[in-house]
Design goal:
This protein has about 100 residues and is of the alpha+beta class. It has helices at about 20-35, 95-100; strands spanning about 40-45, 55, 65, 75-80, 90. It is globular, with a radius of gyration of 13 Å. The mean pLDDT is about 85.
């Protein structure tokens, strides 16, 4: 995989979920990533929420996380218009991601 990463953490407070803010944010992120020429977006997220935006288990695309336990749980990926099927390999978040807790 290319040696670059853009990281963000997002979510809606439980009392505001279902109002569409999370979906609007996801559409904005995907649009921005596509406009920037990114080929794929990966995330750790709820398996019932992100597939509606085209996310699949990242392993289906040959993208594996550096934390083995994530590979079969919440590690997902979505291809963008610049996607190349040769984009495979180990994904590592930027170091600050691991400090978020």
């Amino acid at each position: 995989m290319p040696q670059r990463s853009r990281s963000a953490r997002s979510g809606s407070p439980p009392d505001q979920q279902g109002a569409g803010a999370g979906a609007a944010l996801m559409h904005a992120v995907l649009g921005a990533a596509d406009a920037l020429g990114e080929s794929v977006v990966v995330l750790l997220g709820h398996l019932d929420f992100y597939p509606r935006f085209g996310f699949v288990p990242a392993a289906e695309l040959g993208i594996m996380p550096d934390v083995e336990a994530w590979a079969t749980t919440h590690f997902q990926a979505r291809t963008l218009s610049c996607y190349d099927a040769d984009t495979k390999g180990m994904f590592r978040y930027a170091p600050p991601f691991y400090e978020l807790g």
